[in-house]
Amino acid sequence: MTEKNPLADPRLAAFEEKISNDQRIEPKDWMPDAFRKNVLRQMSQHAHSEVIGMQPEGNWITRAPTLYRKIVLLAKIQDEGGHGLYLYSAAETLGTSREEMVQALHDGKAKYASIFNYPSLTWADIGMIGWLVDGAAIVNQVSLQRTSYGPYSRAMIRICKEESFHQRQGYEATMVLARGSAEQKAMAQDSLNRWWWPSMMMFGPHDSESAHSGQSMKWKLKRESNDVLRQRFVDQTVPQAEFIGLKIPDPDLKWNEERGSYDFGEIDWDEFMQVISGNGPCNRQRLQHSIRAQEDGQWVRDAMHAYELKRQAREVA
Amino acid sequence: MNQHSLPLFEVFIRSKRGLDHRHVGSLHAEDPAQALDYARDVYLRRSEGVSVWVVRSSDITASQESDMASFCDPMDDKPYRHATHFKLPKEVDNM
Ligand SMILES: [Fe+2]
Ligand SMILES: [Fe+2]
Ligand SMILES: [Fe+2]
Questions:
Q1: Which of A119, A136, B79, B94 could connect to A202 by a Cys-Cys bridge, CB 3.0–4.6 Å?
Q2: Do the Cβ atoms of B20 and A154 come within 8 Å?
Q3: What's the complex ipTM?
Q4: Does B17 touch chain A (CB under 8 A)?
């Protein structure tokens, strides 16, 4: 392979130079196969996460405590569907169709964020998802606005504009519970206890263990490492929890004056591995539901296609 | 020769890597390849960009501004779709 030596392949040299000059790679640029595969994996995984992530929240639409909370939740979930679309279409610029990506998801070959394999058991979980899960996603996505693949970067900028609403509605809903009756506060605390660690896992393995991280950082697809982003999330979230009197379920959590950051305990990596390898509490349910939604909608796509064929035939005649 | 029979093309330029292509104007040409050459000659004379798209104007389906009220609801009656709707105490307002 000549690709190994930048001097041997002028296309690779040009690619490397764009990366090192902080230029974005655009769809029609030549790029190494491994780069194309890596961006596609990352973007399709992100797109699947947006879409699968609608399920734990969708679970509470019909049971939201007030009409107001219900319309807010509906609007939030609609945004997530849109985020999926931005990301699928940005990923399609790499030459893989959305059908292929969705098929890979349904065949269990593509992943999505492991957090969505946890169940939303109480109403408090909806506030918690907005505050913590969208909060963690924002930390990651803000960093990805500077990713080296142009369409991905632009999709991230668009998405970040909408995310602030998601986190704020979640925090506000949590705050209302935390300041409510003793039972409501207990429900919020129970929810934080269940969602804290899975949210911490959203940033992925430690930098030293992360399979794709090193290369992604070199290509500037990832701009900051998993551990750096996780620390940022902890540092911003702890004061938010303290402010509403909720306790983060980590006995090792404490302010480190020297670092100017919070120290925190170790993630249960066995649990993380279990969930990403398909054995989390809801993995099968999430996938089955997604497949069923796809199949249930087939008649609509068929009908629209039949109508289009008919319309074209009429035009010719 | 009849200039008026040449189809119209819309021209879009990406001024810099990482940015979207933006509409800059239009021109007449026989076919897409010629339109691209003309776009280069007319719209790219002062390093305006790094990439050009040309698209046959007749291939663009556009909304009508006069129909916007019935075509597109900006949902101003749903202010909760905006981050600013959620009032938070100042200690935690930076999210
Ligand atoms: Fe999203
Ligand atoms: Fe997201
Ligand atoms: Fe979101």
A1: A136
A2: yes
A3: 0.84
A4: yes
